[in-house]
Prior knowledge:
By secondary structure, this protein is an all-alpha fold. It has 3 domains: 27-209, Hypothetical protein af1432 (Orthogonal Bundle); 217-334, no CATH class; 338-423, no CATH class. It has helices spanning 9-12, 28-37, 40-44, 63-84, 96-105, 114-124, 133-144, 157-163, 186-192, 206-209, 214-237, 243-253, 258-272, 276-289, 315-333, 336-361, 374-382, 386-399, 402-413, and strands at 291-295, 309-313.
Amino acid sequence: MPANRFYTSFDFETLASRSAYTGEYRSPFQIDRDRIIHSSAFRRLQNKTQVFLSGEYDFYRTRLTHSIEVAQIGRSICGWLTQQSQCLDDDCFIDSDLVESACLSHDLGHPPFGHAGERTLHHLMAPYGGFEGNAQTLRILTQTLFSEGRSGMDPTRALLDGVLKYKTLHTETPQAKNHYLYDEQERWLDFTLGGQAFPMELTPGKVRNAFRSIECQIMDWADDTAYSLNDIADGIHAGFINVQRLERWAEEQGDLSEADLADVAFISKAVRENRVEGRLNRLIGECIRATKLVPAANFLSQSTRRHQHALEIDPVQRRRADLHKKIALELVFLSPQLQQLDHKADFILTRVFGVLQERYIDTVQPRGLHLIPAAIEKEIQAAADAPARARLVCDWIANMTDHFAFRTYRRLFDADFGSITDFV
């Protein structure tokens, strides 16, 4: 295939050397994408919460359909930038396969029950290094995706940089509730940076986390575009958002700009005319065309073109996305119905973790009830200390789908549940 001057061997490098196959027809980034798509971690996203619990209705988005939508938007942004930017041409362009890989994998680390599950696991894992969805995605890609040798899928440096929205270690911001990496992931962060240290001005926390490759910036805007529009659409279809509630919400704000009020009127009209999906989908194209490539310079610019450019977003579209996220938060996510489900998710994960903590984390019991798969139990027995054991237990819980978490809870605590057919 023709060479793409945008990338060099620095971008293609992996921490462990990949096996080379005679006549390989795929680029390293296509191999990354294919490994993600054919993984169990990716398939599990079909039964993990996006907004509503998966399986309640067949047309609401799950983490899987959301990831596919983000990937489509990401690829389209690449095409738009190649067409519009004077910095790019037919043999020097942002690789859409790489961006697609980042988009498809960006939510792999999310646990069951969406952000409610993430908050609960962060609290439960506080004594053992915390839990964070983006950090868990890195752990899956580099350690657990394919269990042989515990090297994950051997991702390229460019993919790791495309996925890593946050580059601050947990102990650098110990009070943070999210947006960090696990301390033991420092070696993969060092590899992603090519062994170069952060300059003094990139302080841990928000400033350092804003340091991202161009592919990561594209993935992040594609993600923002997808969920700021689609969470609204799902909220309307589920009945949480209607014209009366939306207009009353707008009146209660008191500080919405004319542009905000016009956007509320646009959504209200789409609801009245029963054209929500078509009208909101049209805005996706506007978000794609709202992107522009601008020059950037930082401590990695000499190593890779991925850090010689930044993604500039039209402020009008950024404002609209922020408004949509606020509407979804206040009319959907903070509704009593979803808050009750969040409470239930917290209760379920806390009780399941408690049982496993007593059995596998607090003390090493060579004998006892076999509550988790034998292969994981064996790893726990060999783990060096309680934090390492807790991380393995957390991996198993975080991998659960919504339904598997429900069934596990019922098997452990529901006296009327537990025939042999419940295990399939």
